[in-house]
Each structure stands twice: as structure tokens, then as C-alpha cells.
Design goal:
The protein is an alpha+beta fold. Helices cover 24% and strands 25% of the residues. The chain is built from 18 helices and 32 strands. A 7-stranded mixed beta sheet has the order 4-6-2-13-10-11-12, sandwiched between helices. A 5-stranded mixed beta sheet has the order 1-22-21-20-26, with helices on one face. The chain has a 5-stranded mixed beta sheet with strand order 8-16-15-14-9, with helices on both faces. The radius of gyration is 27 Å and the shape is globular. The termini are far apart.
Length: 755
Amino acid sequence: MQKTVETVVKGAPSAPSDPSGHTSNHVGKPIHRVDGQLKVTGKATFSAEFQLEYVAYGALVYSSIARGRIASIDQSAAASAPGVLGIVTHENAPTMNAPLVLSTGGVAASNLPVMQSDEIFWNGQPVAVIIAETQEQADYAASLVRVEYHQEEAALSFDALKSKAELPPTVYGQPPEVNIGDAETELKQAHFKSDEVYHTSRYNPSAIELHATIATWEDDDTLTVYDSTQSISLVKTTIAQVFDLAPEKVRVLAPFVGGGFGGKLYSYNNTLLCIAAAKHIRRPVKLVLSREGIFRVVGTRAPSEQRTALAATADGRFVSFIHKSIQAEVSHGFHSEPISLHGLRHLYASESRALSQKVVNLDTVANTPVRAPGDATASFALESAIDELAYMLKVDPIELRRINEPANDPVSGASFSNRNLMEAYRRGAERFGWKYRHAEPRSQRDGQWLIGQGVATAFHSYIRVPSSARICLYSDETALVQVAAQEMGMGTATVQIQYAAQQLGLNQVSFEYGDSNLPLSPMAGGSGQTVSILAAVAKAIEQLHQELLRLVKDDSPLAGATLQDVEARNGGLFRRDKADQGETYASLLQQAGKSHLEIVVDTPQPTEFMEYSMHEYGAQFCEVRVNDVTGEVRITRWVGSFDCGRILNPKTAKSQLRGAIIMGIGMALAEDTLFDERQGRIVNASLAEYHVPVHLDIPTIDVTFLDIPDEHTPFGAHGIGEIGITGVAAAIANAVFNATGKRIRDLPITLDKLL
């Protein structure tokens, strides 16, 4: 089988045989990322960097109203501008079906037909594509287009319309309400209670790599697309559905993706319009969104209002747990931020519980599932409320969480598959020095700086979905694993190579990915890609070993052996009870007259969810300094202690968690999408005005793992990509209260709120 140069990375985990003759374990070692050298030397090819002959360049023109219809488009100046090859508008765009969203089998952010009518649904909606010989020519010509509109009244104010919010049919397939007992009555009767409202802002994901697409039609029904996406297989499905193509006639390539954070999870208008533009001029077209374009087209984490009420007995036992949330949504999108799921349903015990999630539809760009959707937002309110109640009860906030640690899932009653939250708190508290914290606010000072410490629980639900994998074992004792997966910098290729090398007993394994022609893989979302692929690779290796045993000759030391009798090590299969009896893969293949052996598998729907409540946990500790004169907030120390199953590679895992914590710091202190409710336009659509943390904002982040395998998951592993952002904003808000005595319930925590 030919190995595709553009999408294959090779790994040599460098694990020589140990004195007993066994190949050393690769899993659990802090191995460097196998694609790291390619990236730092500029040899990793990202979507915008593929070189195609005769490629043209696209630029989008965006609507300047939120609701209405296009009255006219004056494109005369643009059409006559230097280098312009064509202009696509709703008047001449190729026929495109309305795309399917995630709940209906596609992965579009919105089910609105793309550029098929004169109707405008949000401010920033693409209304024209300019195609030119160079990017500069396309951008200039786009600035010359003049659009007139028939403007209509738009629904734009979240605060004005939240009174009309309604329950959605479901939240990710779960009921939007949960009621156990009479929580409101218990709240009224309780002596110790907190009942407050918390707000979170809009947040825009802005990965370092801009959203880029190159589309080339080989004929009228065969298409290749290079796309920066987190969902390579589903993007292929969506493209085929929109353009009425046979799926096998569409190939999507994404060998390297420069970050996503949910912002590249869906298929957005820019990808489909690039394909339409290429069809229009019958040449390859490259369309790269500008940073402003990402704000216009890709969407945000929705703003939220969360009433969170907790009531407890004098000894701290929860008797009432209430969370009523409202968030913004659009009628034509899939993504409703699942605020009412996960932590609110699974973290803490309570005698009564009332949860509800309502949505209000606005005329904005469709939401996108930014890192840890639901949990990042809900954890701010929940973990702040627990801190408020702990202060009222005069009990340590960690102790309050311990008191309300459930024996089983508080809503479903299911057993937990693996839950070590209190051990994560114990270890984190020891590393942080939590016992030295002063419980009373404003009791620590260094000159003008008030000092405080805060803590919060991190939480994310375990996800695994069906996946496929192909393994090719070669007679030179190398192997190739193939999956259509996407690598966004989190170490997917590295950990899959580590796992396959260990299970095969090899030191030379390659991993090919980023190509929709390879076996189907899940999206890189929900922290589920690694374990989903792991399950497929494990099944493929098992079948490979079974097939090898079928090739065994009667005079072989492996004759009559079953899978239970053998183990893979030192480049072959050997008997478990007799270390010197076995055969190398090269020998087995040579005797069978084969140059290689290929296995392709699919995994079924996971069943572990049906029996267990499955989640990842963590404890976030932080120390802040707040200037008593200016209100400036500085994070000075951070410890994150996590219970995320078996850690496959501590180096890549720590990198993932540190990055997520940094995003949480941005959520707490800086990030805020400023939305003009008069025109429906995002006004800070650049990284010059949309503030994110920089190096000097971030302290040393100490990350530690329990590394306790979950016996109910593939190889005991869990996802780790998203849990790191959860609890961060609350830990900071709680630390700010400890420092200043001021409770901030509206994010971000800016200095004006502390003066």
C-alpha cells in the first residue's frame, strides 16, 4: 500500500528492549510530538499552503445589516478592477442544497441555504465572493462592491428579549429540565442559602491559523478540498450533500490544522463559497478568511444568564440545588450551549434539584461550540455559588464539596465508572499550599496589592463515538495506522503511534491521517477523538494478531496458541509463559508469502454510557493579586490537579491542559465580544481589540495528574482537551473575592468592576 507523503508522520518512540527481553512500554512516556520538527522547520503544510497550478484567490463581501433583503449589488467597479476573474452573488451562484446541521447528519453551523436568495439573516453574512488572480486584487475589488438593502426589524438585544425565552425541545438529546423534589420550597425554608444571577459574555474562538479552504474541481462531479477543519469526515459528507455529489467523489484533506477550539468544528459559509467560486470560474480557488472575517462568519460562544441557588443545612449538606439559565441562539443553527447538562447534573449531591435551560433566538451569526461548551459557562456560576455558600457557612470550600460528594450519579443513579475528585483536591491542595490560605477577605496584602486564593472544580463528560481504522503490518517490521482524523496540535498522531507501537511490540510505527479517503474518524470535538480512535486501533490490532495466528505453521513455537496465550513484543508474537518461544512478524509474513498484512475495522456504538456515569474531574487552584488603587488583576500562581484516566503522554497532556487553563484566564479577565445591539455587528472583530492573554499575563502553570486508569474505557483513557478550561473563571473570581471582598458575578472581571 502506498503511503501518502502529505499526510503521514512517522514515529520512532525509541524504546529499546529491557533486560527481560520485553519491548519497553511506550504509553505513559513524555515523548516529543512526532510532528513537532515538521512544524518548527516550516515543513508542515497547512491548508492555505498547498501549491496548486492556476489557483485563484477569493475574498468575501459581508452584509452590513442584521435582517432584511438585498435591494441591489453594484459590482461594476469590482468587476473592472485589475485581476478580477469573476464575482459570485445570489444572482449567479451555483445551486446548493440547504446544508445539514450536526443533528441531521451533516456538520454545518446553520441550515440556511448558502447564497441562494437575497435574504439577510445576520450582520456579516457573506453576500458576494470576489475571485481574482491575487489575494490583494481580490481584497481590493471586494472593497469596491456597493450593496443596498431593504432593512427589516431584527431581534438583537439579549436582555430585551430574554423574557420571551423558551425551552428548546432537547439539549444535545437530553431534556432541558430536571426536577427532583421541591427545590424552590427547600430554598425558601433553608437558613443557609445563596441565590444569585451570573452572566457570561460572548466569546469568539480565534485559532492562530486562519480558516482556509482550497477547492479544485477535477470535473463536474469530482472535487478535492483542502480545508482547516476539526471534522474532516463530516465536512466531506456535508459538501457532498450540498452540491449533490456522490460521497466517493469528494476528498477533503486537512493534514495539519493550526488550532480550532470548536471554531473549526462546523462547516461554515466560507468553505462552501470557496467551492462554489471554483465551480464558477472552473479553476482552483483559495479562500482564506481574514481575522475580521472569522468574527463575521464563524460565530461565538453564546452569552448566558444563570440564576444559581444553593441551600444547605448547618453542617453543609445541600438540600436545594437550582440552576435556571437563558442563552442566545439562532433558529437556523444546531448549537445550543448545553449549560444545563454535565456538571449541574452529575457533580454534587442534593436532596432536591431544579434545572432548566431556555433559549432566545436572535438574528446573529450561528453559535459555535467553543472549547468545553456548556461546562465552561456553567462552571463559572456553579463554582462561584459554592464559594459564596462556603463563606456564608464559614466552612472551607473544598470541605463543602467533600460533604456533598455523591455515592452515585445524583440524577440518573448510575454508578460512576471512575471518580477520584477528592483525591485530585487533596493532591492539588498539597502542591498549592491551600492550608496556608486566609479565609477572611482582604487579610493578605503586599503594599498596594491585595492577595487572595481561590479554588473550583473542573469537570467534563467522557465521550466516545464509533470510529474506523486500518492497520498495515509490513515484513520489515514496521506498521502504518490509517485514520481520517485531524491533528490540531494536541498530539493525536503522537499518542496513537505510542499506543500502536506498544500493542504491536514495534519501535517503528507511522500514522497517516488528515484525508477523508482514509477510514472514517470522529470529529476532533468533545474531547472524544483520542479514545474513539484508540478503540478502533485496539480492535484492528486484535484482529491483526488473530490473522497472524492463522498463518502459523504446525512446526512453529506458536502452533496451537490463542490470543490469550501470546503477547506482542520485540517485533513479533511470543508466548506469555515462555519468553523465548515465538516468531517475529517478518518470519510469519515470509512463511505466508506476504509482504504485508492489512486489517480494516469499524467500532460499534459505545455501550459503556448505558451502565455508568462517565466523566473527567479536576481541581483548579489559583492565587491573584489585585491592585487596591487601580483594580488591576494579576494571576501569580496556578495548580491544576486532574483525574482523567490513564495519561497516554504526560508531555502532550500537560500542554493541552495548560492551553485550556490559559483560555479560561482569558474568559475570566479579558475576552468579551462587543456586540452593537442597534445594528447587530461585532465591533471588536480583531485581535487588536478582542483581548486575549499574552505571555506576561500567565504565571507558571503547575499541572498534575492522578493517572488512575478507568477500566471501562479504551486502555483506561479519557479525553483531556477541554476539561482544563472548566472551573478556571470561577477559581479566579473566588480568588478575587478572597483578595478584595468584592464578588464579581459578570464576566469578564475588568478593573472598572473592582474600583
